[in-house]
Amino acid sequence: xxxxxxxxxxxxxxxxxxxxxxxxxxxxxxxxxxxxxxxxxxxxxxxxxxxxxxxxxxxxxxxxxxxxxxxxxxxxxxxxxxxxxxxxxxxxxxxxxxxxxxxxxxxxxxxxxxxxxxxxxxxxxxxxxxxxxxxxxxxxxxxxxxxxxxxxxxxxxxxxxxxxxxxxxxxxxxxxxxxxxxxxxxxxxxxxxxxxxxxxxxxxxxxxxxxxxxxxxxxxxxxxxxxxxxxxxxxxxxxxxxxxxxxxxxxxxxxxxxxxxxxxxxxxxxxxxxxxxxxxxxxxxxxxxxxxxxxxxxxxxxxxxxxxxxxxxxxxxxxxxxxxxxxxxxxxxxxxxxxxxxxxxxxxxxx
Length: 351
Fold this sequence. Notes:
Elements: H1 8-13, H2 26-33, H3 35-53, H4 61-86, H5 94-110, H6 119-145, H7 151-170, H8 181-188, E1 191-192, E2 196-197, H9 198-216, H10 218-228, H11 230-235, H12 240-266, H13 277-287, H14 299-318, H15 323-350
Antiparallel strand pairs: 1-2
Helix pairs in contact: 3-14, 4-9, 4-12, 4-13, 4-14, 5-6, 5-7, 5-12, 6-7, 6-12, 8-12, 9-10, 13-14, 14-15
Transmembrane segments: 37-53, 73-106, 118-139, 151-170, 196-216, 244-266, 278-294, 299-318, 324-340
Subcellular location: Cell membrane
Protein name: Autoinducer 2 import system permease protein LsrD
């Protein structure tokens, strides 16, 4: 009985052993590892659940339009908050800055034609809202960067101060004749090609522009670098303080833009209606995968994070769930999404 010794021919014919980690193409593994992919999966599951539960009433064309319109203003605010959170900051004042910008814009409109004013008044009042947001945000950024006051304290103080100024100016009452009819009928209720609300178009354009800025420009790279390690960013020549001022000014600018969108859609300053805007926006950004410790986040993730509570709220309303349970459900989804992301990241670090 002969003993066969494997030779070169046998080794060449034998199948190569499978290498760990080679079962999927690299681009598939990269997409699966993205925070946005997991967050998008949560959104898809919510849509699938409500569609199965109420197939005749959920996700109709009207529902899609309403969800997108209601999310538009929070998406604009969320874009600014994304930059702030990536640099390991926080801005609790966005809702109050929106109110103050709206009030100052409305005061100009009231004294220059009111509801019957034309596009000239609309242009100036819009500029007032944007400048108010930039100045307020830049001042807060200066206090964070130069005075070294923690951003939580600065923006919490800014939250109260901006709202207080708005109430002093108006006496605590929403003024009448605060919005031009031209602005309301065109931007507030108008639709591009008769199909897409202008508010959605503005939010989409804002998202695309600043998403590209964050992902592909020096400003975006500096933002991530400062959030990851501000001291290392200083050592490589980045003016960290100046960049932080710009970041908070940007957040203020987008709060001012949000105020114009709010005035156009609702026709009032809604002084008492923005106390929880900061929490809604921060929730959206965190749901989108941004880290409160800085260095991680994306505008795409924020888009997904904004639509998760919007879809959840709409679905629960259609299912006749009480408002109180809607708030509980949104809180549970927030905690669960963050926990799953943390669990996945720990597993990836161990692996």
